[in-house]
Amino acid sequence: MTPEIYEKLGQFYLGRQVETDGKPTDDLVLYDSSSLTTHGVCVGMTGSGKTGLCLALLEEAAMDGIPALIVDPKGDLGNLLLTFPQMRGEDFAPWVNEEDARKAGISNEEFAAAEADKWKNGLAEWGQSPERIAALRQKADIAIYTPGSNAGIPLSILRSFEAPDHAVAEDAELLSERVQSTTAGLLGLLGLDADPLKSREFSLLSAILQDAWKKGSSPDLAGLIGAVQNPPFASIGVLPLDDFYPPKQRMELVMALNNLLASPGFATWREGEPLDIANLLHTPEGKPRLAVLSIAHLSDAERMFFVTTLLEEVIAWMRRQPGTPSLRALLYIDEIFGYLPPVANPPSKGPLLLLLKQARAFGLGILVATQNPADLDYKALANCGTWFIGRLQTDRDKQRVLEGLESASAGRGADRAKLNEMLNSLGKRVFLLNSVHLPAPVMFQTRWTMSYLRGPLTREQIRLLMDSSRPAKAATTAAVAPAAASSAAATGATPEPPAAEAGVWQLVAAETASTLIPTLGLRARGTFACKRPVAETAADFMVSVPFGPDGKPAWKNAVVAGSVDDTAPPVPHGGSLFAPAAAALLQASSHGAWQLEGRQQLGENLEVSVRRTGSVTGAPFEDDADFRLRIEQGMREQRDEAVRRLREKFSVKSKAAAQKVERARETVARQQSQARAAQMQTAISVGTSILGAFLGKKTMSLGNMSRASTAARGATRAMKESTDVGTAQERLNAAEAEAAEVEAELEAQIAAIPSPADAALQTAETVRLKLVPSTLRIESAGILWTA
Ligand SMILES: Nc1ncnc2c1ncn2[C@@H]1O[C@H](COP(=O)(O)OP(=O)(O)OP(=O)(O)O)[C@@H](O)[C@H]1O
Ligand SMILES: [Mg+2]
Question: HEC profile for 119-159?
């Protein structure tokens, strides 16, 4: 077995096939990564090897440059950080289970050495070298995040109820979905399991969030409390607010929210990195990351809140990605219990259903695991393309999984009796893989994981593992340079932005500048295009229009200042000085007029540049890391497409071969049963005649005579039938060999697909695109501070 085979881009090495009777074979199970875009389910009793399998799959993803979000309710996915290319006992020692060493009656060191040996041998048995482990560590960043705790990298999720961005805010259905699940999550956190249709708390909080988000504002918890006391609207539905939900009773909700805010554990929920999916999936340099989101330390309500918030963020992130038929990222939930139940409707269910329906188009594969087949809403999983079914405890569990599978596309046309038989023969680490992408179910044993599966990590161990990669405390902002301050004083610049009328927004486009200059800013949307080479891209962007000495916008000098996302509100006394602004810039009425005027004045003079290499065109304002990700995704798409074309090319051939095997198999079966019948007849005839003789018939009657001769004839027939079986069996063998050959040829051709040329950043050219004036839409006007 050469590693080259399974290191091919787009193929995940999951294990080796086993025969129906459990006998191992040498055939590798390599699964196309693009098959996972239709999502996967992994079911099996405790200890059946689900986590081992999914962890191996995540390792494969990392080897292929595919990042993953890993929801870890049990704490054992952090084992992904336990990879030791040198496989020395001392590498394992800090992580072995001391209790196990004690039970074995040996020292920790001895036990660690034994574990190291076990891992080395296990990996070797599965054809994996220490270099492969080194490659895994080099190719991906692996980190443990701990919301509400600083054992790992803390994640803040309650800093504010962040207004969703364009992609969500402008889709009424998505926005309402997000409002609903955030409200439900928050009420769950308060211990109020509210029914969205009946609960006043639910109606009020969701109306407050909807109102805030529509205005683009992001209230924090304190802001929410204020809004519950004095809502920014006077009615809910058709009822006056105070009738619907009298102030006195609203006070109870205020108290509950306030208790949450004041609770000692709450502070940690506000600390740490913001929950930003793009930042979780890749390092700033663009390296893929396996982001383990450890939630074992949280209460049930907190877990639900976190998972729901995470799923909502994933939806928003997903909506910003271009469509792709290839796998871009994975979302793995190690124990789906409680998040996707068949009957109940917890806050997580809405966003999960939405993801299961829509994520495929964006290349996001969802993988869920569970011990208990009763925990799953099979209707939601009907389109799930990949099923890994491990050993199950009870017959009822087996039947339930089979039913679920039958109702899913992956199980249509499956032979239930055969599947049932296969389920009965599953051992530890042996799974039945049923997939819409495979012609038949396959049984396989999972490969040995590169990561050391030591079981759940304690908080202290997580701290130890993550200490080395903890980000250094951010340096405090540099003080204002005194020189800039003094020279600015002469020009009238101030350390605070000027006060503008209500409705006039102010944003800063420059990251650092000693003195910021006010310009007219326009938030706009439009399409940019270029004829040679042909390229086109739609973008949200910010236009900066300088102000002439006449106090009017100099439209001719307008430029695209960058992405809306790269601007930030001005920080008073933040180190920059603000130059004086023309009076007109501070008035709301002038901005209204300019917004209309801009539509006429702005045109082809607005340009953006994008980068291009091979067939990949980047997006405006994209940094190197994002452009590299785009190139890599393009390579995956190329390869998946090549594989798909080969499969298609071979499909007639392999179908014909499979049919031939099927026909030959039927012939063998038919002749076997004929032969059996003939033998039986012969045995009966011979038996009875001989029996007759034995029973001491003194004289041989004619009848007996003829019976004996019939028996003799029967024996010849039985012989003939069995030679027929012989030739039919030979034909079946030949047909099977032929089918195997076709399969092998296909595999060989897939293996021979050249890896797409490593399209390098250096070879990228820059293309300038001009605005197509008819597509310009100006959304709002305000003050944009530039350098
Ligand atoms: N691929 C593998 N390579 C090496 N060891 C494995 C592998 N899979 C499972 N094991 C061993 O089997 C044990 C149990 O497997 P695993 O944790 O995957 O079970 P599980 O199905 O996830 O159980 P649970 O439902 O309790 O989480 C692991 O702790 C590990 O020791
Ligand atoms: Mg597990």
Answer: HHHHHHHCCCCHHHHHHHHHHCEEEEEEECCCCCEEEECCC
* CA 515 / ligand 2 centre spacing (Å): 56
Distance CA 637, CA 429 (A): 31
Give, for 58, the enclosing helix (H) or strand (E): helix 50-63
What is the pLDDT averaged over residues 416-434? 91
User: Which token pair is 225?
Assistant: 């409390």
Residues linked to residue 154 through DSSP beta bridges, in sequence order: 146
CB atoms within 10 A of CB 691: 11
Rounded-to-integer distance, Cα 689 and Cα 710, Å: 10
pLDDT at 691 over 70: no
Residues near 580 by beta carbon (within 8 Å), at least 6 away in sequence: 491, 492, 493, 494, 498, 518
Q: Is the CB of 453 under 6 A from ligand 1?
A: yes
Cα 644 to middle of ligand 1, angstroms: 33
| 429 touches ligand 1 (CB under 6 Å) | yes
Give tens-digit pLDDT for 643-687: 999 989 988 888 888 888 889 888 888 888 887 777 666 555 444
**What distance in Å separates the CA atoms of residue 193 and residue 191, rounded to the nearest whole number?**
6
The pLDDT value recorded for residue 488 is 43
CB 768 within 8 A of CB 679: no
Query: Mapped to the 3 state alphabet, what secondary structure does 280-319 carry?
Result: HHECCCCCEEEEEEECCCCCHHHHHHHHHHHHHHHHHHHH
State how far the Cα of 358 lies from the Cα of 352, in Å rounded to an integer: 10
Atom of ligand 1 nearest to the CA of 371: 25
Mean pLDDT of the chain: 85
Peptide bond into 288 cis (omega under 30): no
Are 522 and 542 in contact by the 8 Å Cβ rule? The answer is yes
Q: What is the structure's pLDDT at 603?
A: 86
221-245 burial by CB neighbour count: b if 16+ within 10 A, else e? beebbebbeebeeeebeeeebeeeb
Taking CA 661 as the corner, what is the angle to CA 659 and CA 664, rounded to the nearest 5 degrees?
Answer: 110
Say whether pLDDT at 185 is over 80.
yes
Mean pLDDT of 702-708: 37
Q: What angle do CA 213, 217, 220 make, to 5 degrees?
A: 100
Confidence of residue 107 (pLDDT cuts 50, 70, 90): very high
Task: Let me know: does 342 contact 388? Beta carbons within 8 Å.
Answer: no
Instruction: Give the list of residues 6+ apart from residue 457 with CB closer than 8 angstroms, or none.
Output: 75, 76, 78, 79, 144, 294, 465
Question: What is the 3 state secondary structure string of 690-702?
Answer: HHHHHCCCCCCCH
For ligand 1, mutation pick of 48, 51, 430 (most atoms within 8 Å of CB): 51
Pick the most confident of 17-26, 367-376, 733-742: 367-376
Burial annotation 563-600 (CB, 10 A radius, 16+ → b, else e): bbeebeebeeeeebbbeebbebbbeeebbeebbebbee
- Closest residue by Cα to residue 510 from 456, 571, 452: 571
Whole-angstrom distance, CA of residue 592 vs CA of residue 291:
45
Dihedral sign computed on CA atoms, order 25, 27, 33, 34: negative
For 62, 80, 410, 447, the CA distances from 452, given in Å and listed in that order, are 16, 7, 32, 13
The residue whose CA has the least distance to atom 15 of ligand 1 is: 49
Token digits of residue 710: 């019939």
How confident is the model over 447-497, as pLDDT tens digits? Answer: 999 999 999 998 889 999 998 766 544 433 333 334 444 444 446 788 888
Average of pLDDT values for 285-305? 92
Q: Is the CB of 75 under 6 A from ligand 1?
A: no
429 neighbors 388 (Cβ within 8 angstroms): no
Sequence-distant (≥ 6) Cβ neighbours of residue 96 within 8 angstroms: 108, 111, 112, 115, 454
What is the number of helices (H) and of strands (E) in the chain? 23, 24
